[in-house]
Amino acid sequence: MTERMRRVMRAAICALAVWFGLFEPGGGYAGYLGEAAGETAQVRQNQLAVTALSAYDAKLLLAEPALAASEGSGGAARTQYASAAASAGPDEDKPQKRTEQASGNGKTVYLTFDDGPSRNTGEVLDLLKREGIAATFFVLGEHVKQQPALTKRIVREGHSIGNHTYNHKYAEIYGSFGEFADQVMKTDELIFKTTGVRTRLLRAPGGTYGNFDQGYFDALAEAGYLVHDWNVDSGDSKRTGVPVSEIIATVKGSKLADKLVVLLHDSTGHEASVKALPAIINYYKAKGYTFAPLTERVEPIRFRMAVKPKWTRAKVTRAEKTELVRFANSLTKQAGQTAAEAEAPKGTPKPSKPVGQKQPPEPKLVLHLGDGKLELESGTYSLGKGVTEVRLTKLMELAGGTVTADAREGRIEAKLNDRHAVWLLDAEDASAREEVDRFAVPVRSTMEQLGFSIEKYVLGDKQREIWIAAQ
Q1: What is the pLDDT of residue 451?
Q2: Would the pTM count as exceeding 0.90?
């Protein structure tokens, strides 16, 4: 057996051990040591159970050891194997324009900042702007309310924004899912009203390990949220007053992987984190990493489920889940309208014409998806305030998805591959319940929920076409 094969076999065994959870806490994999200084030592120890390799990396290594060995589980190996490993998760997101372009080695760092915005956030943004880096800010609703200008600046300067609940109080948000959902909805509404952005990114205060049960995961997934943990903890919140040198040393001592999600804080009291940031950025640059913000196309890193949750609480109820799904869908529709209005090119027709003015016939609307094409005659679609709505059944016919309806619950669901979108109808929408074929939805927001994006569009007086592409 060659030395290369021995190395591959050893790597495969390690991956199998991680995959099946054979490593116990403290077994050498850097994990979460506690986000808040007030957590108990036992909880911090339990958090060490975070998996060091992502599911994608483990499947890649086990299924194609030769490719993994030849490229270090990255670069060409990942590109060649991407189609066979599609079930392991979506590809990494392409960085935003101001973000450094990802290099061919596929090594990416996602810097994330929790608990802001605060007076420290401005300094973080200044530093990131100088470095040309986009990051992700998981904000608290109460701080968005206090710092609307900084919240707007986060989005304006090309960073991603995520939901971190309203007040971060563990006993409240983990005492019942109803309270957790209320805080998520309240924060989402504040983010949207402040920035015009509807975010699906969410981070649980303290991380999911020991705090989430399956009910939390299921309800949030059905509402379309992407829950992100991390695999590098800077340790800046282990206690009050963690020095700059310790934060830097903790980051440098963490395990390296192709995909690193780094936990930092920009809230009041974390001035040391800001001071440590330049050294952290320089360290990863020297290691050949590029930087990008988390988006909906980045597969979340998740801690494994705790055998025994920390909290004693009632199970998530159907009513709690339904309320969150209804809210998320309504806010998604608002966000889709806002984005479409902002992007609508000159010449986009107005929803109505002055009375008595002769209106020219509206052109067909043509939707393109891959090799498929759907042509809709005037009157079978609507275009108002920059939002294009078509019948859900027609949209799924083009995409190859299915539509089901539950008249008793007023629920309409579209499914495509492993994704789905749900609409919960009010009593006055009885006609739509009875005739699902007539149920119309916004093209942009619906396709985004199902894993697609709008590549380009023309919505003029003479030509109306939309090109849809897989994310």
Answers
A1: 87
A2: no
